[in-house]
Design goal:
It catalyses: L-seryl-[protein] + ATP = O-phospho-L-seryl-[protein] + ADP + H(+); L-threonyl-[protein] + ATP = O-phospho-L-threonyl-[protein] + ADP + H(+). The chain has 13 helices and twelve strands. The chain is α+β, with helices and mostly antiparallel strands and about 425 residues long. It is globular and about 75 Å long. About 30% of the residues are buried.
Length: about 425
């Protein structure tokens, strides 16, 4: 026979529990007595001990909480930008001038301009298939190289990355005063002091990339911008790579500025891969002081490439260059990457006799006055040297057509920057 259950005490316990005020809880004291907690203290006990704890992001927001207001402006989107001008052509796409128009937040700056590099998604997919590399699509986007490094005044800054159904958009800081290529066309050959200033800007940029273990692989005058203060800023990192990257290093960059090992795919240690950029910087320095391309004064392109491999170049007879200037160019254009100036560290470039008058601390702080200060560029009120894209080519952007007397017209040459 089963033992009898004390149904009276069980029923009394149920009644006692049901008679507790809503939100109350029961606490047992050490003296054996039971204390009933009121709703003011019972709710935390119930939430902590009697209920299943739910993650914070699953809970409904408490209307009694006063959340702090967001002081920062939200990120810009394509709808917040107007495309107003074509700045030029990059290694993998067009570069446009975009103007911000949003003014809903106190920190918004309507009228602020950005350089917008447009990359076709179709091209990126084809490029990934061409090199049979699963991560090539992300690798070819400059944001993957620059987003994780500090801002530097000699490197173009990345602001944002956007996309629509057709394109990838890389938003960069706008530096609208032309390129070193345009400056060379207008003012070269430079004297030794002017050339040393501009070359020191390139050295500062390469010193920063050396610290970040990044190889640019496409240094040329077209990829060096002129800022408002006359200093140079390195841009277009579409061909850049980490020095420990094991992907293809053959024929990366512009052929006439490639180092011999880039053309021959010679295996190099990681520490020597930075020497490719020093070769290209030597080509740029030669072009600044002679107004000629170092290895291009030949009858055929094949002969020019052959001279690059052999490291053969000549000095123009009508231009007088100092011994120290010739020495630094010759040391930069050394075929053997191990013996090339800069291959063993940027300090070897700092200590070169031709640059002995440069205070590198002042140069990195941009405290020198540039030898050539470009005039203020009113890009919204000047003639456009390139046509604007069709709306279907940039579906996420609003294209603003200029006035008829500022619109692109192929009858006129590109205006000089100085």
């Amino acid at each position: 026979m089963a033992p009898l259950r004390n149904t009276t005490s069980t029923r009394a316990a149920r009644l006692e529990s049901s008679s507790l005020p809503p939100g109350s809880a029961r606490r047992h004291r050490f003296d054996g007595e039971t204390e009933i907690l009121g709703s003011e203290y019972g709710q935390p006990f119930l939430a902590e001990y009697l209920k299943t704890v739910v993650p914070e992001f699953h809970r409904l927001p408490d209307p009694s909480l006063i959340r702090p207001s967001e002081s920062r402006a939200p990120s810009l989107t394509l709808k917040d930008l107007d495309l107003t001008r074509t700045l030029g052509v990059g290694s993998q796409g067009m570069v446009y001038l975009a103007r911000a128009k949003r003014k809903s937040h106190p920190l918004d700056k309507p009228g602020a301009c950005f350089a917008l590099k447009v990359l076709r998604k179709k091209y990126q997919r084809c490029h990934a298939q061409l090199y049979v590399c699963a991560h090539m699509e992300q690798k070819d986007i400059e944001r993957t190289k620059l987003v994780g490094i500090d801002w530097n005044p000699f490197i173009v800054g990345i602001v944002h990355a956007l996309d629509d159904s057709r394109n990838l958009y890389l938003m960069q800081e706008a530096i609208p005063c032309g390129t070193l290529h345009s400056l060379i066309q207008q003012r070269a050959p430079f004297d030794s002091a002017t050339a040393s200033f501009y070359f020191s800007n390139i050295v500062c940029a390469l010193a920063f990339l050396e610290k970040e273990d990044i190889v640019h692989r496409d240094i040329k005058p077209e990829n060096i911008l002129v800022a408002k203060d006359g200093y140079l800023v390195l841009t277009d990192f579409g061909s850049s790579s980490k020095k420990d990257d094991l992907t293809n290093w053959l024929l990366q960059g512009t052929p006439i500025y490639m180092s011999p090992e880039s053309r021959q795919n010679m295996p190099l240690e990681e520490e020597l891969r930075l020497a490719r950029d020093w070769w290209s910087s030597g080509c740029v320095l030669y072009e600044m002081v002679t107004c000629k391309v170092a290895f291009y004064q030949v009858e055929s392109v094949a002969e020019a490439y052959s001279r690059i491999v052999r490291g053969e170049f000549s000095w123009p007879p009508d231009i007088k260059l100092g011994k120290k200037l010739k020495a630094i160019i010759s040391e930069l254009l050394t075929v053997d990457a191990e013996e090339r100036l800069g291959a063993k560290g940027v300090e070897t470039v700092y200590d070169h006799p031709w640059l002995e008058n440069i205070n590198w601390r002042m140069m990195k702080a941009r405290r020198y006055i540039a030898p050539i200060i470009p005039p203020a560029q009113l890009l919204m009120k000047t003639w456009q040297a390139h046509p604007l894209p069709k709306s279907r080519e940039v579906p996420g952007l609003n294209v603003i057509n200029p006035s008829i007397h500022h619109a692109y017209d192929n009858r006129f040459p590109e205006p000089p920057i100085i």
